[in-house]
Specification:
By secondary structure, the protein is mostly helical. The chain contains 4 helices and no strands.
């Protein structure tokens, strides 16, 4: 993960994301069903819309 946390587990990731508990992160990482193509498409759309320069994306 890219947050630069000293330890990367569901508790620290949830805290970093502003969540009160790790339940949502645990679900997302362990039980949720992913559509890899849809995630790729969403990420590409976000990058194209928001990262027009290197400075905006770093």
């Amino acid at each position: 993960m890219l947050a630069g946390l000293p330890r990367e587990n569901c508790w620290t990731i949830a805290e970093w994301a502003g969540e009160a508990t790790p339940n949502g992160m645990q679900h997302m990482l362990n039980r949720a069903e992913w559509d890899a193509d849809a995630v790729r498409d969403d990420l590409r759309e976000y990058v194209v819309e928001n990262c027009t320069t290197i400075e905006r994306c770093s």
